[in-house]
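Changelog note: in this version the structure field was regenerated for every chain. One regenerated record is shown below for reference.
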Amino acid sequence: MIKPKVAILGGTGFAGRNLRNELEASGLQVAVFSRTTGCDLHDLSTAWQKLDAFHPECIVNCAALVGSINYVSDFAADVVDHNMRIIMNVYKIAQQMREVIVVNPIANCGYPGVMDSYEEMGFWGGPVHPSVLSYGSTRRMMWVLSKCYNEQYGVRSVNLIVPNMYGPYDSTNPNKTHALNALIIKFVKAVKYNEPEVEIWGTGKPIREWLYVKDFARIIRRAVNEQSMSHDLVNIAQNRGHSVNDLVQLISNATSYKGKIVYNSRYQDGSPKKIMDDRLFRQQFPDFKFTSIEDGIRETIEYYQAIL
C-alpha cells in the first residue's frame, strides 16, 4: 500500500506535535505548517503556495486558537475570528487541490451543552454550552464546511469528534493549556516548590472523557492510512468519564502531594457531564486499546517534572 503524504496544520502545537511523532515513526512523509514554520493560515495565498509545494494527499487540521473556558469567554470574538478564517482557508485550499482528504479533529464542545447521550446523530440537537460558545460554534462549522465542500466540489473529509485531551507538549500557561494538563502542572509545581495548597478552578464536579494525546495520534494515523470511514462524523469515544475530583485524587496520589486542596467555585464549570457514545467508534476501530487514565497521568506527570 502506498503511504500518503500528510500535511499537519498546527503541527508545532500540542496535538500536532504528538501526531507528527506518530506519523513519522510509522514511516509516513510528513510536513508541518504553522505560524512558527512561516505558514500563516490566515493568509490564503501564502498558505496555498506552501501546501501546494508539498502536494499532500491528506491534510490534518490541528490548527486552532483555543484555551481554557475562561480564555474562550474573555477573548470570544478573537476565538471566532481566528478559527473561522483558518477553517475557511483550509477548505479553499482543499478545493484547489481536489484529490486531498481533510481530516478534522472536532472538539466535543461542538456538541449541545447538555445531552442524555452524546451520540453523533444528536450533534445538532441543541445549542453549545454558553461557556464555550465562541470555540464550540467554530467546531460545528468544521463539519458544515466538510459537507458543503463535498457537495459542491467533491472534497472528501474525515470528521472525528475528540474529547478533552491531555499529555506531553502542551502549553505551560494555565489559561492556555488543556484542563487535565493544567491540573498536573499545578501539582508538579506544588511538590517542586513545597507549596502549602493547590487551587482547583471550579467545583470539581464536572465529568468528562479524557483522551491521552498519544492515543489520539494513533487513531489519526489509522484514519490517514485506511481512509475508509463509513460515517462522516465519529466520536473518538471510550464511553467512560472521570470527574475533576477523581483526577485531583489520582494526580495528588501520583505526585505524593501532601498539602491542602482548595476549590475556587468562582470559575466556571462548563457542562456538567459529557461522556460520548462509542458504538460508531467501535465499528471503525474494533481492536483499538486506549491508554488507561492512570498510565496516561503518570506519563504526563513525568513529562512536566522534566521540563518545569
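Spot check on this record: The domain at 6-165+209-235 is CATH 3.40.50.720 (Rossmann fold). The mean pLDDT is 93.
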